[in-house]
Amino acid sequence: MKFLNCNENELHEALKRTNGYFAGNIEFRELEQTGKRSFRGTLTVKDSRGPGSRTSPFNFNPSGNPHRIKAACWHVHGVFFDELMAVNEDVKIRSNGTKIEGGKGNWADRNIGSITYPVYYSEACDCNEKTEDGNFYKSMNKQTKK
Ligand SMILES: [Zn+2]
After folding, report:
1. Distance from the CA of 81 to the center of ligand 1, in angstroms?
2. For the segment 51-67, what is each residue's pLDDT rounded down to a tens digit?
3. What protein residues have CB closer than 5 angstroms to ion ligand 1?
4. pLDDT exceeds 80 at position 33
């Protein structure tokens, strides 16, 4: 991902806020400054069994549960983008060549499976069960109760 028109403190503040929803399990795998106010970075999880981790659409372990991947899930990215835009409303974010916009565009979903076995990015993790109050994730819901 590329982050333009922001500084490192803002990226770390957004990460800190994101971690509030995922029990502190999220970190930058790499964060490289590429210009005066531009960065390239990747989000990942510290523990692949913890909140916000990805699961594989194709590999299942013997008990039938999806194999876990040491990568941050769709929700982590959506929350991080929301928080970064809250910290700095002028930030510009590019992910896979796509410009991330606030609101709906931020939460655009896509098929990461195949045509015959579609798996949506938003389904490739454990935080999908919508709770009664309409919140997306179990982990997020716990952390944001007021
Ligand atoms: Zn998720």
Report:
1. 14
2. 889 888 777 777 777 78
3. 73, 75, 125, 127
4. yes
Ligand 1 centroid–CA 121 distance in Å is 8
In whole angstroms, give the CA distance from residue 118 to residue 137.
21
Ranges of beta strands (E only) in 5-140 are: 26-35, 38-45, 53-60, 66-72, 92-95, 98-100
In the numeric block, which tokens belong to residue 112? 């990461």
Domain-by-domain residue ranges, the chain? 2-136
Is residue 1 a contact partner of residue 94, using CB atoms and an 8 Å limit?
yes
Residue where the block lists tokens 């579609």: 118
CA of 137 to the centre of ligand 1 (A): 7
Distance 101 CA to ligand 1 centre (A): 19
Instruction: Look at the chain and count its residues.
Output: 146
C-beta neighbour count of 47 within 10 angstroms: 13
Q: What is the pLDDT of residues 82-130, one digit of tens each?
A: 999 999 999 999 987 778 876 655 667 777 777 777 777 777 887 765 4
